[in-house]
Amino acid sequence: MIDIIPHVAELLAPTGAQIELSWRDTYVSFPLIVLSAPANTGTTSGGSEVLTNITVQVDAFTLDKKSTIDLAKAIDEIMIPAGFTRGIAQPLPEGELERYMMQYSCTVDYTHQNILI
User: Does the pTM exceed 0.85?
Assistant: First the structure.
């Protein structure tokens, strides 16, 4: 099994947002990106994992709608060229917070190092 979340966190670092690997009871600042992996499916052959299909959820939080949309666009401009395909993207405001939820998928090869583009 492959944990791609640290790689995604590294990719998104240039956004300047605080990046958390899950929503925890911790001090946060905005903008905030919360990463999770709701799906990680391996294809095996001969007892070894040869392909891994991974879905990464990226939740972008800010305090106003325009900033959230700008952050979501910046995330998209990083993820797509890195080999990820966006499957869903939708705004989900939460009280006084603006949230934009996006899910990206990718396939990683047998080396567990390369995203197939």
Answer: yes
